[in-house]
Amino acid sequence: MMDKIPLIVSTEWLEERLNDRKLRLIDATTFMKPLQDGQITLTSGKESYDLGHIPGAVYADLLHDLSNPASNLPFTLPERDVFIEHMTILGIGDEDTYTVIYDQGALVGVPVTDPQWAARLRWQLKYEGSENIAVLEGGLQKWKEEVRPLSIEPSTYPKADFKGKRKDELLATMEDVIASMKDDSVILINSLSPEDFRGETDTYPRKGHIPGSANVFFGCHANPETKAILPNEELRKNFEETGALEPDKRVITYCGGGIAATWNALILEQIGVKNVAVYDGSMNEWASRDDLPLVTGSK
Q1: Are 265 and 119 in contact (CB under 8 A)?
Q2: Pick the CATH number of 8-145 from 3.40.50.1000, 3.90.330.10, 3.40.250.10, 3.10.20.310
Q3: H-type helices in 91-133, by residue range?
């Protein structure tokens, strides 16, 4: 059995292993651009991948291939067989390999480098039972700033044999979140900006946050200048007041569409919190239902 790789790897760590036959490298870039009216546009990162990517990387399309086309919400989980088919074609899933995922940043034109898209694909892979998956610290932005090698050549890996077993405990449903509002053993964490949390933006059909949830902005876990992840003691401080660090609690993270929430989930795993689930529907689902409560303000 392979040695376990870190949850988050540095650019130095990755460059040293670019020629390792056991490495599977994925570019999961998706572009989310906020507009002045509070809405957003979403674009695949495939064209950007073609213009330059880390050598050996294959491209995984979260927007089109790895979301459920039957859902009226963006980015909801696809059917398991569809997801596994795409992963095996990309060469992801063999037990004797390890996977590193990167992206080009969280939001277009916003100085938040925390790799939410890479975290989303990592969470999907982990949910379906894959192991030994890491996210690249600082993503392609940090890699380019350090003048590390790039390629325009498309890459491929041998087709994989995906044998992982789904981990249902990593997914939270709307019903789970409703129940959590009356359950002191569950900590609900909103991963959006403080402005979104307080209800000061028009991003979603209704304003505010789910009652009882605490706000930990997903973009607060990395140094914006160096793009390096903060030390674990500082990461722990980001969650201290939420109660998420108490060992007997279950944590559910949510955001707008189940993307940023996966980065918070990964950071919690990094600092040793084990019982963490992601609400996949998040605010896109919750705010579209007039019968579900939302509150505004900082509390």
Answers
A1: yes
A2: 3.40.250.10
A3: 116-127
Q: Are 75 and 67 in contact (CB under 8 A)?
A: yes
Which DSSP symbol is given to 102? E
Architecture per CATH, domain 168-286, reads as 3-Layer(aba) Sandwich (3.40)
Q: What is the pLDDT of residue 205?
A: 87
What DSSP character marks residue 53? B
How many Cβ atoms are within 10 Å of 127's Cβ, its own excluded?
22
In this predicted structure, what is the pLDDT of residue 75?
Answer: 86
Rounded to 10 deg, the angle between the 232-239 and 260-270 helix axes is 120
- Whole-model pTM over 0.85: yes
Q: Which of 297, 151, 86 is nearest to 211 (CA)?
A: 297
Nearest to 25 by CA among 61, 50, 58, 70: 58
Structure confidence at residue 2 (pLDDT) = 72
C-alpha radius of gyration, the chain, whole number: 18
Tokens (6 digits) for 193: 């900006």
Beta-strand relationship, 23-27 and 30-34 = unpaired
pLDDT in tens, 195-238: 999 999 888 889 999 999 999 999 999 998 899 999 999 999 99
DSSP state letter for 12: H
- 86-142 tens-digit pLDDT: 999 999 999 899 999 999 875 655 666 789 999 999 999 999 999 999 999 999 999
DSSP conformation letters of 175-243? HHHHHHTT-TTEEEEE-S-HHHHHT-S-SSSS-SB-TTPEE--GGGSB-TTT-PBPPHHHHHHHHGGGT
